[in-house]
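STRUCTURE:
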């Protein structure tokens, strides 16, 4: 479970959001990607970060109960 992306807040929440936002941009260089990522990070609403962190304990319990299996279907 320690390596599971289902319980790592940056993986299940923040990176997913940033990835979706970056996919909407026309990026063609590593420098452009870095700049866009920093821009999107600065725009990230604190409420999104808070909600992601608030869901963390529940995700940990579910992942443990499911022995590290997928849990996304249990969260909807």
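SEQUENCE:
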């Amino acid at each position: 479970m320690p390596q599971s992306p289902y319980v790592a807040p940056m993986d299940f929440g923040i990176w997913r959001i940033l990835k979706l936002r970056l996919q909407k941009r026309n990026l063609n260089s590593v420098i452009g990607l870095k700049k866009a990522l920093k821009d999107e990070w600065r725009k990230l609403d604190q409420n999104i970060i808070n909600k992601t962190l608030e869901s963390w304990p529940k995700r940990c319990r579910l992942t443990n109960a499911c022995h590290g299996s997928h849990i996304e279907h249990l969260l909807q």
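REMARK: The two ends are 21 Å apart (CA to CA).
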